[in-house]
């Protein structure tokens, strides 16, 4: 049984939960401890008590610890990637790639621990100097999702520790295996007891404890809009710092002058890889009329050639949906799309494979209207809606006509349209002739509107959330 990690100790939970492989529901990945509110309180108390010591640690101490964590993750990328794919359902190459990304994130923030900067300025008053420095925000509660079970925790935990904060980490209930493996590596990195704590358990108990406790100075959350709204409300009630990454209904615009091969590949990868379970997935494909029919046909042909199978099987392009509940949600939206009058040109069926799992063929809807629910609401599965556009201006209007604003993309060879789109697309990230799903770890990640709240994640911009600025005036 894999336990929770609290105050430098591995502790049994109040219950355990079976971690089930979505590629083979007869395969139990392991049994993992579940904390309750009382154990969450223990973890919060430990992190709060450890905060002064870790805040006063040297940049070299923090850098060394994070570098050790990153090095072990990278050395074990194939083993941990197999665990990730078995637990979450990503294909094995995707799983290994995500683990490598997590290792690189820790190594990047090992460097950031040494690159903390301040400013020294002259005052407008004679005889006074000004120093502007950054200090840790304190104790950080981290609530992570299931779709990137090691990369997203890494890009939250690594900067928190790099900038001298202590951490209480609550992973998603569907993916305790990656969380435990990451915590086990962190537990051997030389951090003082209580600096990092893992509490696996239900959001209603463990997550709520993080939201309500005054000792949690900041909360970083990735998940649904509905839950993110509740997180923001709870944080506002006690004036805690909050960072939210939530939903997306990301568009990809394809113009008449696009390279069709590039456009189709970008669309397929954006919409369907990782089983469409990415907040940056392009579920709305907005295609100009001159290329529309050819794009739909090529999209259908390319998607029909994808192999949907066990995540660990050689040659699998798309693994299973993460859970029974998620595939039911996907199927319900596919039914809604048909009821709304969208034309289902490919897929959208639950299928069987050699092992019992949550397998779904990617669904392509054509002739969609941007007012349809399948074009407004986040499905979080392998479902793409193709929407015709009269011209570039109409395509841009459709792309921006959404409550979300995380990622957006355009496929075009027109410098004029690309430059205009980069400036006028209402999203935090813009991709040109590349898939919307797939971002680097050393640059800021985040969006606008209902997709994000608070400062950006990743890269040097992470300092905005995990530190607080102090201005000191010194008389000479």
UniProtKB/TrEMBL annotation:
Keywords: Oxidoreductase. One of its GO terms (molecular function) is 2,5-dioxovalerate dehydrogenase (NADP+) activity. Residues 15-471 form the Aldehyde dehydrogenase domain. The active site is at residue 245. Its EC number is 1.2.1.26. The keyword Oxidoreductase applies. It is an enzyme of class 1 (oxidoreductase). Belongs to the aldehyde dehydrogenase family. PANTHER family: ALDEHYDE DEHYDROGENASE-RELATED. This is Alpha-ketoglutaric semialdehyde dehydrogenase. The lineage of its organism: Bacteria, Pseudomonadati, Pseudomonadota, Betaproteobacteria, Burkholderiales.
């Amino acid at each position: 049984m894999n336990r929770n990690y609290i105050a430098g100790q591995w502790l049994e939970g109040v219950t355990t939960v079976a971690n089930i492989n979505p590629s083979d529901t007869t395969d139990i990945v392991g049994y993992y401890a579940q904390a309750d509110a009382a154990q969450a309180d223990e973890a919060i108390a430990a992190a709060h008590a450890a905060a002064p010591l870790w805040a006063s640690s040297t940049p070299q101490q923090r850098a060394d610890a994070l570098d050790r964590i990153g090095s072990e993750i990278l050395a074990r990328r194939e083993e941990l990637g197999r665990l990730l794919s078995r637990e979450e359902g990503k294909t094995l190459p995707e799983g290994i790639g995500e683990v490598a990304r997590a290792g690189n994130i820790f190594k990047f923030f090992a460097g950031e621990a040494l690159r903390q900067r301040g400013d020294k300025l002259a005052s407008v008053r004679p005889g006074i100097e000004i120093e502007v420095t950054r200090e840790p925000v304190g104790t950080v509660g981290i609530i992570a999702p299931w779709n990137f079970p090691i990369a997203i925790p890494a890009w939250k935990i690594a900067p928190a520790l790099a900038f001298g904060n202590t951490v209480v980490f609550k992973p998603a209930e569907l993916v305790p295996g990656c969380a435990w493996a990451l915590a086990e590596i962190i537990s051997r990195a030389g951090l003082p007891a209580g600096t990092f704590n893992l509490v696996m358990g239900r959001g209603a108990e463990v997550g709520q404890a993080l939201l309500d406790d005054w000792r949690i100075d900041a909360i970083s959350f990735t998940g649904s809009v509905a839950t993110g709204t509740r997180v923001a409300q709870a944080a506002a009630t006690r004036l805690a710092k909050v960072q939210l990454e939530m939903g997306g209904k990301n568009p990809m615009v394809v113009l008449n002058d696009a390279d069709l091969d590039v456009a189709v590949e970008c669309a397929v990868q954006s919409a369907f890889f990782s089983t469409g379970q990415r907040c940056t997935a392009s579920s709305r494909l907005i295609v100009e009329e001159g290329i529309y029919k050819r794009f739909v046909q090529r999209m259908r042909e390319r998607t029909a050639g994808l192999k949907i199978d066990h995540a660990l099987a050689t040659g699998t392009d798309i693994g299973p949906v993460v859970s029974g509940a998620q595939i039911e949600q996907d199927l319900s939206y596919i039914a809604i799309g048909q009821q709304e009058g969208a034309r289902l040109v490919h897929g959208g069926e639950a299928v069987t494979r050699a092992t019992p799992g949550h397998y779904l063929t990617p669904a392509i809807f054509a002739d969609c209207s941007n007012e349809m629910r399948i074009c407004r609401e986040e499905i979080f599965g392998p479902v793409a809606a193709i929407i015709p556009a009269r011209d570039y201006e109409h395509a841009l209007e459709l792309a921006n006509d959404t409550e979300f604003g995380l990622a957006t993309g355009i496929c075009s060879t027109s410098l004029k349209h690309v430059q205009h789109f980069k400036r006028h697309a209402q999203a935090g990230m813009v991709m040109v002739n590349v898939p919307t799903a797939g971002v680097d770890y050393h640059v800021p990640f985040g969006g606008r509107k209902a997709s994000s709240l608070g400062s950006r994640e990743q890269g040097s911009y992470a300092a905005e959330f995990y530190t607080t600025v102090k201005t000191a005036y010194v008389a000479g």
